[in-house]
Design brief:
By secondary structure, this protein is of the alpha+beta class. It is 30% helix and 32% strand. The protein has a 3-stranded mixed β-sheet with strand order 2-1-6, covered by helices on one side. Strands 4-3-5 form a 3-stranded antiparallel β-sheet. The longest helix has 19 residues. It is elongated, with a radius of gyration of 17 Å. The structure holds zinc ion.
Length: 114
């Protein structure tokens, strides 16, 4: 139930923003989901549909998920590579002096409300 926790967290944030900005309802939520964020998009969407029924502003809110590529950077080669293809090991030198640049987060990119 990892996804549900994140869904609840995101919805709380959006509801709070809606409250503070005095909107009547939120129509669309653009959510960036990193492909190495451990979230299963289909399951996330199911949790979302269930969770918005309990909200004040998001009853009809459409969820638009934008999948963000996982990109890692090798400090030795000073190059980036696709995390999903190679994991933690750099494909150029085979070393582990790497870190994830993007693709591990869930971020609210935009909210459309009336
Ligand atoms: Zn390298």
């Amino acid at each position: 139930m990892h996804e549900l926790g994140i869904v609840v967290h995101v919805i709380d944030m959006v509801e709070k923003a809606a409250e503070e900005n005095g909107v009547s309802k939120v129509l669309r939520l653009d959510l960036e989901v990193g492909e190495v964020s451990t979230i299963v998009p289909d399951y996330f969407r199911d949790c979302y549909k269930w969770a918005i029924k309990r909200t004040k502003y998001m009853q009809e809110c459409e969820l638009n998920m934008i999948i963000v590529q996982g990109i890692s950077y090798c400090r030795d080669c000073k190059k980036t590579y696709r995390t999903t293809e190679y994991g933690r090991a750099c494909p150029l030198c085979g070393g582990y002096n790497t870190y994830l640049v993007t693709g591990s987060d869930v971020i609210v990119r935009d909210i459309q409300a009336v």
